[in-house]
Design brief:
ATP_synth_F0_bsu_bac, about 170 residues, single chain, mainly alpha, ion transport, ATP_synthase_B_chain, ATP synthase subunit b, hydrogen ion transport
Protein backbone atom coordinates (compact mmCIF):
# COMPACT_ATOMS: atom_id res chain seq x y z
CA UNK A 1 0.00 0.00 0.00
CA UNK A 2 1.18 3.25 -0.84
CA UNK A 3 1.28 5.78 1.80
CA UNK A 4 0.65 9.29 0.95
CA UNK A 5 2.34 11.97 2.83
CA UNK A 6 -0.08 14.67 3.57
CA UNK A 7 0.92 17.46 5.75
CA UNK A 8 -1.82 18.11 8.07
CA UNK A 9 0.02 19.76 10.86
CA UNK A 10 1.70 23.09 10.71
CA UNK A 11 5.41 23.11 10.56
CA UNK A 12 7.16 24.35 13.66
CA UNK A 13 8.88 27.72 13.36
CA UNK A 14 12.36 26.34 14.05
CA UNK A 15 12.06 23.91 11.19
CA UNK A 16 10.90 26.66 8.96
CA UNK A 17 13.83 28.93 9.86
CA UNK A 18 16.21 26.02 9.35
CA UNK A 19 14.76 25.31 5.91
CA UNK A 20 14.95 29.01 4.92
CA UNK A 21 18.55 29.32 6.18
CA UNK A 22 19.48 26.07 4.43
CA UNK A 23 17.79 27.28 1.24
CA UNK A 24 19.59 30.65 1.39
CA UNK A 25 22.89 28.92 2.17
CA UNK A 26 22.31 26.55 -0.74
CA UNK A 27 21.56 29.54 -2.98
CA UNK A 28 24.80 31.30 -1.92
CA UNK A 29 26.82 28.11 -2.49
CA UNK A 30 25.18 27.57 -5.90
CA UNK A 31 25.87 31.17 -6.82
CA UNK A 32 29.53 30.81 -5.89
CA UNK A 33 30.05 27.34 -7.29
CA UNK A 34 27.63 26.99 -10.21
CA UNK A 35 26.00 30.28 -11.23
CA UNK A 36 29.17 32.41 -11.06
CA UNK A 37 31.29 30.20 -13.34
CA UNK A 38 28.28 29.41 -15.53
CA UNK A 39 27.49 33.11 -15.91
CA UNK A 40 31.14 33.82 -16.60
CA UNK A 41 31.26 31.12 -19.31
CA UNK A 42 28.00 32.38 -20.83
CA UNK A 43 29.31 35.98 -20.82
CA UNK A 44 32.55 34.85 -22.47
CA UNK A 45 30.55 32.92 -25.07
CA UNK A 46 28.35 35.98 -25.75
CA UNK A 47 31.46 38.17 -26.09
CA UNK A 48 33.02 35.66 -28.51
CA UNK A 49 29.83 35.52 -30.58
CA UNK A 50 29.64 39.33 -30.68
CA UNK A 51 33.30 39.51 -31.67
CA UNK A 52 32.75 36.90 -34.41
CA UNK A 53 29.74 38.85 -35.69
CA UNK A 54 31.78 42.08 -35.72
CA UNK A 55 34.61 40.31 -37.58
CA UNK A 56 32.14 38.88 -40.08
CA UNK A 57 30.64 42.33 -40.64
CA UNK A 58 34.09 43.82 -41.12
CA UNK A 59 35.10 41.05 -43.55
CA UNK A 60 31.85 41.52 -45.45
CA UNK A 61 32.49 45.26 -45.71
CA UNK A 62 36.07 44.59 -46.83
CA UNK A 63 34.81 42.12 -49.43
CA UNK A 64 32.29 44.67 -50.73
CA UNK A 65 35.02 47.30 -50.93
CA UNK A 66 37.25 44.87 -52.79
CA UNK A 67 34.43 44.00 -55.21
CA UNK A 68 33.82 47.71 -55.89
CA UNK A 69 37.55 48.27 -56.40
CA UNK A 70 37.78 45.34 -58.83
CA UNK A 71 34.76 46.61 -60.75
CA UNK A 72 36.32 50.06 -60.94
CA UNK A 73 39.61 48.58 -62.17
CA UNK A 74 37.74 46.49 -64.73
CA UNK A 75 35.91 49.57 -65.94
CA UNK A 76 39.20 51.48 -66.19
CA UNK A 77 40.76 48.54 -68.06
CA UNK A 78 37.88 48.54 -70.52
CA UNK A 79 38.26 52.29 -71.00
CA UNK A 80 42.01 51.93 -71.56
CA UNK A 81 41.44 49.09 -74.02
CA UNK A 82 38.92 51.22 -75.93
CA UNK A 83 41.39 54.11 -75.99
CA UNK A 84 44.18 51.82 -77.20
CA UNK A 85 41.95 50.48 -79.97
CA UNK A 86 40.95 54.00 -80.97
CA UNK A 87 44.61 55.07 -80.96
CA UNK A 88 45.60 52.05 -83.04
CA UNK A 89 42.82 52.77 -85.54
CA UNK A 90 43.85 56.42 -85.73
CA UNK A 91 47.51 55.45 -86.20
CA UNK A 92 46.59 52.94 -88.92
CA UNK A 93 44.49 55.59 -90.66
CA UNK A 94 47.34 58.10 -90.46
CA UNK A 95 49.82 55.56 -91.84
CA UNK A 96 47.38 54.66 -94.62
CA UNK A 97 46.89 58.34 -95.45
CA UNK A 98 50.66 58.88 -95.40
CA UNK A 99 51.21 55.93 -97.76
CA UNK A 100 48.50 57.19 -100.11
CA UNK A 101 50.00 60.69 -99.98
CA UNK A 102 53.47 59.29 -100.75
CA UNK A 103 52.08 57.24 -103.63
CA UNK A 104 50.23 60.27 -105.01
CA UNK A 105 53.39 62.36 -104.71
CA UNK A 106 55.40 59.66 -106.47
CA UNK A 107 52.79 59.39 -109.23
CA UNK A 108 52.77 63.18 -109.62
CA UNK A 109 56.57 63.16 -109.83
CA UNK A 110 56.50 60.41 -112.43
CA UNK A 111 53.83 62.29 -114.39
CA UNK A 112 55.87 65.51 -114.27
CA UNK A 113 58.98 63.61 -115.30
CA UNK A 114 57.10 62.04 -118.20
CA UNK A 115 55.76 65.46 -119.25
CA UNK A 116 59.26 66.93 -119.02
CA UNK A 117 60.61 64.03 -121.07
CA UNK A 118 57.84 64.54 -123.63
CA UNK A 119 58.60 68.27 -123.89
CA UNK A 120 62.31 67.54 -124.24
CA UNK A 121 61.66 64.89 -126.87
CA UNK A 122 59.36 67.31 -128.71
CA UNK A 123 62.05 70.01 -128.68
CA UNK A 124 64.66 67.50 -129.86
CA UNK A 125 62.29 66.35 -132.58
CA UNK A 126 61.67 69.93 -133.62
CA UNK A 127 65.40 70.66 -133.67
CA UNK A 128 66.06 67.51 -135.66
CA UNK A 129 63.18 68.31 -138.00
CA UNK A 130 64.49 71.84 -138.55
CA UNK A 131 67.92 70.49 -139.29
CA UNK A 132 66.53 67.83 -141.61
CA UNK A 133 64.28 70.38 -143.35
CA UNK A 134 67.23 72.75 -143.73
CA UNK A 135 69.40 70.01 -145.19
CA UNK A 136 66.60 68.87 -147.45
CA UNK A 137 65.93 72.44 -148.54
CA UNK A 138 69.61 72.98 -149.32
CA UNK A 139 69.63 69.84 -151.44
CA UNK A 140 66.42 70.78 -153.21
CA UNK A 141 67.52 74.38 -153.78
CA UNK A 142 70.93 73.36 -155.01
CA UNK A 143 69.38 70.98 -157.45
CA UNK A 144 66.92 73.61 -158.59
CA UNK A 145 69.43 76.36 -159.07
CA UNK A 146 72.28 74.09 -159.82
CA UNK A 147 74.40 76.00 -157.58
CA UNK A 148 75.54 75.18 -154.14
CA UNK A 149 74.58 77.54 -151.33
CA UNK A 150 76.47 77.49 -148.16
CA UNK A 151 74.85 75.53 -145.34
CA UNK A 152 74.83 78.54 -143.01
CA UNK A 153 73.04 80.70 -145.59
CA UNK A 154 70.54 77.95 -146.21
CA UNK A 155 69.87 77.45 -142.49
CA UNK A 156 69.33 81.17 -142.03
CA UNK A 157 66.87 81.10 -144.92
CA UNK A 158 64.99 78.12 -143.45
CA UNK A 159 64.89 79.64 -139.95
CA UNK A 160 63.36 82.76 -141.43
CA UNK A 161 60.85 80.63 -143.34
CA UNK A 162 59.93 78.65 -140.20
CA UNK A 163 59.55 81.86 -138.20
CA UNK A 164 57.07 83.05 -140.81
CA UNK A 165 55.17 79.78 -140.54
CA UNK A 166 55.15 80.06 -136.75
CA UNK A 167 53.64 83.56 -136.96
CA UNK A 168 50.89 82.45 -139.25
Amino acid sequence: MAQTFIMTKAMPLGDMVFIIVAFLLLMVILKKVAYGPLTKVLDQRADKINKDLDDASKKSADANTLVEQRQKELSESKTQASQMIATAKKSAKEQSDALIQAANTQVAGMRQSAEDDAVQMKEEAMTTAKKDVADLSVNIASKLIQKELSADDQRALIDAYLAELGQQ
